[in-house]
Amino acid sequence: MTKFTVLILGSASASPTLNRNPTSQLINISEQYYLVDCGEGTQLRLRANKIKFQRINHVFISHLHGDHYFGLMGLLQSMHLLGRTTALNLYGPPELIKVIEIQLEVAKSTLSYPLIFHATNTEQSEVLYEDEKVVISTIVLKHKIPCTGFLFKEKEKPRKINIEAINKYSIPKYALNRIKKGEDFETKTGEIIRNSLLTFNSLPSFSYAFCSDTSYNEEIIDTIKDVNLLYHEATFTEEHLERAIKTRHSTAREAATIALKSNVNQLIIGHFSNRYTNLDVLLEEAKSIFENTHLAEDNKIFDVSKTQ
Amino acid sequence: MTKFTVLILGSASASPTLNRNPTSQLINISEQYYLVDCGEGTQLRLRANKIKFQRINHVFISHLHGDHYFGLMGLLQSMHLLGRTTALNLYGPPELIKVIEIQLEVAKSTLSYPLIFHATNTEQSEVLYEDEKVVISTIVLKHKIPCTGFLFKEKEKPRKINIEAINKYSIPKYALNRIKKGEDFETKTGEIIRNSLLTFNSLPSFSYAFCSDTSYNEEIIDTIKDVNLLYHEATFTEEHLERAIKTRHSTAREAATIALKSNVNQLIIGHFSNRYTNLDVLLEEAKSIFENTHLAEDNKIFDVSKTQ
User: Fold this and answer.
1) Do B120 and B256 share a domain, yes or no?
2) Does A283 reach chain B within 8 Å, measured CB to CB?
């Protein structure tokens, strides 16, 4: 089984508490690290979880409210002080790079590594990154300022070789890559050996959608439909619906409704207002709509491949 | 006895560790709070120490290296979210306000309270703040970028009224304020009653100097001479003197030499490079020059009035 996990580094909304840092998550897909949002204190949360900063090559920032990025400069700085030379890819709203540049400028400082900035289009979903294993794209959210979520989708995995069959039919090594992709094999004598005889079904591919911060917005359903795991902010309960509408946030019931309508396997809610000292009220509200709901808790790991 | 304490909120240099935040200190003089530097995570350190943010009305930033101010935006933001309306005075290098303004601008955000910015003159010592109890001025430091320390000096305190004598000589109440200032009293009949008959000596006044970050610099001695408590950075030991010179920092021996030559009562060293897991080597090096040296440790309180 390949790895696909989400480590919660911060689950608070704008005002952190002693137990809850502002938003940040580390996504691990086959030992590639992707950092999503970077609230104040993220570098210490990473350190407490024994995550090596230098293994992070891609950082995604949803929007430019401070609780989603005030830890970024400190992390960039620490990567520099640790002697990083590998390029770091940073994805976020266009103005983010200005904010970074002015802070380097006033410190008369440069970074020891290339910082490659990719401005996100906050109006329309787009693919930000793609390799042989994963596609990462944006989810357009509705918030007070331009904001995107991020969708992490594993690509279809190669079929698993049936070694016994490979030996039986004396299949040459050079042909294995194409067979893993599902192709049949043609022998020198022109005989066709069906792929289904040579391989087992591939492992399933998993997907994770990160949606923070946003008003209730059914337009995202098409994009996140059928994902295994959905993180959706739930800043308030229905009791504070008016406040949710005013601040362009969601209630726990709304987050669960999106999960239900999107046919996801599992929902994580987070970005809790610090008015809730006991979060059960948020969890119960969400569960009444969508049973398989869990609370984001700092330092907790969710396994995307086990979301049934 | 009036209160004059220094609470260490962060004692690390640029790379924080799990036990040491980057630089920040809270100075309490007669229950007025002054925050000095504000590295990432300062707001949580304040919270952990049960310090009410809203009681801080003056924030001093020494220079624009991130480990001295990356926690400032988060603190300003939390003060806003908590509904602050009282003005906040911020003192720091001129470019600091640009860095704040751009971060408010990209968040399309304003603060709920007036932020009054006072640009520091990083070339020449100046008084930044003064009231009936305290004078706060800058100490010009020598670092890679413009940097000032801060000197907190209690003013001479009023003389203590000798109540028995006041009754004996039937001194009217309206005269007490002038008597506390040391004036004699003239009765209606023209008789002069000496102040020394009416008062006791005033309580002593204390002083604290904060010096971070800086090369060894004897030019500061005149400014900080005879302070009760000196905080002086000691990023390295003498073994790394070359590195100290290159990065414009001080060694523990250098910090202690400044303390000795400045005739201070007590020295705190801090801003330790994270290469030192055991800080005794820094402490011993300083103590060999200046015995009354202490290590800055996160969450530790130093009492300036007990520095003998």
Assistant:
1) yes
2) no
Distance from C-alpha of B38 to C-alpha of B71, rounded to nearest angstrom: 5
Instruction: Give B213-240 pLDDT, tens digit per residue.
Output: 999 999 999 999 999 999 999 999 999 9
| Same domain (yes/no): A265, A215 | yes
Same domain? B196 vs B211: no
Interface test with A, best of B40, B46, B62, B147 (most A CBs within 10 A): B40
Cross-chain Cβ contact A47/B18 below 8 Å: yes
| CB neighbourhood size of B5 (10 A) | 16
- Tokens 């103005």 correspond to what residue? A95
Range of the domain at A187: 160-200
Segment B29-78, tens digit of pLDDT: 999 999 999 999 999 999 999 999 999 999 999 999 999 999 999 999 99
Same domain, A11 and A109: yes
Alpha-carbon distance values, B153 to B27, B73, B223, B265 (Å): 12, 28, 11, 14
Question: pLDDT value at position A307?
Answer: 87
- pLDDT for the residue numbered A222: 96
Give the count of Cβ contacts less than 8 A between chain A and B: 100
Together in a domain, A189 and A210: no
Q: What is the pLDDT of residue A2?
A: 78
Tell me which chain A residue has its CA closest to the CA of residue B69: A74
The tens digit of pLDDT for each residue in B225-278 reads 999 999 999 999 999 999 999 999 999 999 999 999 999 999 999 999 989 989
Co-location of B242 and B142 in the same domain: yes
Interface of B with A in 53-112 (CB under 8 A): 64-67, 70-71, 73-74, 77-78, 81-82, 93, 95-96, 98-99, 102-103, 106-109
Structure-block tokens of residue A250: 């969601």
Phi-psi group of A50: left, alpha or beta (phi > 0 → left; psi -120 to 50 → alpha; rest → beta): left
How many independent structural domains does chain B possess? 2
Cβ atoms B29, B134 nearer than 8 A: yes
Residue A1 reports pLDDT greater than 80: no
Q: Is the pLDDT of residue A119 over 70?
A: yes
Q: Residue B82 to residues A16, B115, B134, B228, B301: CA-CA distances in angstroms?
A: 12, 15, 28, 36, 26
Structure-token match 């209730």, residue found:
A216
> Does residue A15 sit at the B interface (CB-CB below 8 Å)?
yes
Going by pLDDT thresholds of 50, 70 and 90, the confidence category of residue A24 is very high
Shared domain for B171 and B253, answered yes or no, is no
Task: Write the ipTM.
Answer: 0.91
**Nearest residue on chain A to B101, alpha-carbon basis:** A99
Which of A103, A105, A274 would best serve as a mutation to test chain B binding (most B beta carbons within 10 A)?
Answer: A103
